[in-house]
Amino acid sequence: MKDKIEKGDIVLINKRGEYHNQVGEVSEIDYNIFFVKIVLVKLGNQEETFEEKDLQLQTKKPSIEEVFASIDKILQVVDHIPHLPTKEKVELPNRLKYLKLDIPKLDKQVILKNFDSIDKILTATREADSSATFWQEIDSNFDKISWWIRTSL
Length: 153
Hints:
The protein has helices spanning about 65-80, 85-100, 110-130, 135-150, and strands at about 10-15, 25-30, 35-45, 45-50, 55-60. The chain is α+β, with helices and mostly antiparallel strands and about 150 residues long. A hairpin with a 5-residue loop joins β2 and β3 (about 35-45). It is elongated.
């Protein structure tokens, strides 16, 4: 069931009232005593509870396969970063490959360590040359990986 609302999904609130037509991210799912699905939605810096019937799915959280594809896309782009120092030219692809191997294990500490290292390398590299067109490809894929990590671990 591809349209089932899950933690990490982006939803539109259809319920009339204060939150009508607002968009938020699902942070938790529970069931009430009548087995009605209750969804906790993060709206800015607050969270509100809704029944699933009051929500419309906007964007599914990335699947593991999509995260792997994003890692592969970043790996392809990394080869074309001109101002990447020698150490990072080796470390960045290795960290991305390790991240891809670690994700199925769901080891939060190891995944976050690799992800943070990748983020630091990309941030430092961007400071050296932020105008290159490949950053759009890297950013969109890195955001997808970040979204999965934030909502899956």
